[in-house]
């Protein structure tokens, strides 16, 4: 008997009687899905938020916030030779600007998928990250987020909430562990 | 690493030799626990969330056979290669075979308590494969040649000066620099090189969704993603109990996990791995290693609901003052103490006794595992099976005799108070375990029943 069969047989023999799945209604309570609520949580995580009317405003804001950016990649550009190259070559990206699909006010997370970023490693390997999110895409909690996202369409998706961080040394919070050292969220519209 | 043979009390004694460090450890973990409380209080539905999470996990355990098959089928359809490992040895063999097939000599690994449980690192190293742990805390303990002491905060037992020294020795940072910001930046540079060179990446799994065949991995550092998205081969190692039924259930668990663990609203990254990247190989290793046995122990099967947040450790008065290494198991603290005896009753017979049974662990558990009750039940199993020391059993028998005979009890109390007054040295000495780290109280002049007789108002 293979390990697979052995394990499955043991589980079948030992698993408790099947119980019903609980309902998920009412778990969101009255959590607000507002921009104010989102901003407060994001800033608590060390992220920065800008409200803009059009994507064309982004370069000027970034130039002001991050003087000296060399390699900036905008994931939504139609010209993106980098998307077909070895992902290791993204190592020198200073700033990546990627589209977000849904934002979650309760925890600051934004849902980002492979379709939109083209190279999975992009939002992690860049030194700094900017996410562009349409204003009407803010939701109160994770429950609404999964409702909206629905069945998976892409091979990879990630909720990103703030810049990468660690507190492994004596619980001192340090922003910039292995992923992006900072995060800017542009709320558009 | 090496299996320790000393028991919890002995190892805790060692940890307690450095009192300022114990106090720091105690207070720091309590601070994390307090952050968890503040975060939980911002969610009025918190208790409902815990109940829901617990019920989803119960459903998952009751349908584990079918959910695992569904997960396997979905994962294969997504292009992943699924392996089944009955025990730690088979898990290690499977991982080694994959790496050898690809000629991997150096690889990166993000946090996985399962690979710690299986002692994968020493096995790979014995096969000539270098493993670089990439979670900062895990890298630190790896450089120190120690196991992690906490499942979420692996080097919580270390002071920054010691970490500065380790980095000076291994990464060439200036001697005497112990600034966390500086050391983290140094580790970022060092590990970036490793990410860029690694041929394979191992990650753990926080949740595996039966419905979609996808795996969710949560990190704050981004190390799991840096590894998995750059390497040609991604191996995800998971215990079979990580299965949850549907994608929407992730909402419940992701709301609970980081809030319970560190008091953050969510981890920075909650990555959903479904298909391998183009040109990449994705392996999933499903590991039993005693889990199906635990599933059959009615009193203990709920321990398989654990989502590894570490809240029970942060709140535990014994863990905080004895340190993670005193549990001599990959998972320390209260949850480790109810999981470990299932792996080996003899080796871990001491752990269920490393508790005051205060119940704080059960109160903070996001999936409502009855941890303290299981600790109490394990004690009974271990005594019955003969895994506890004979001295303890004999002592308990004497106690039973004294406590069940009022006359004997009264005499013993009188004698005790007299001895403490007349010969304090008899109790205030190192032979008496109650004297360790504390002064004995002054003996009362009389027993409660003597006092009661004297003061009782006539009715």
Automatic annotation (TrEMBL), chain A:
Domain LUD: 20-188
Pfam families (UniProt xref): LUD_dom
PANTHER family on file: LACTATE UTILIZATION PROTEIN C
Name of the protein: LUD domain-containing protein
TrEMBL record, chain B:
Gene3D superfamilies with a match to the protein in the record: Alpha-helical ferredoxin, NagB/RpiA/CoA transferase-like
Span of domain 4Fe-4S ferredoxin-type: 296-326
Any one of the GO BP annotations: lactate metabolic process
Region (Disordered): 440-459
This protein's UniProt keywords: 4Fe-4S, Electron transport, Iron, Iron-sulfur, Metal-binding, Repeat, Transport
Transport recorded as keyword: yes
Xref: Pfam families: Fer4_8, LUD_dom, LutB_C
Any GO MF annotation of the entry: 4 iron, 4 sulfur cluster binding
Protein name in the entry: Lactate utilization protein
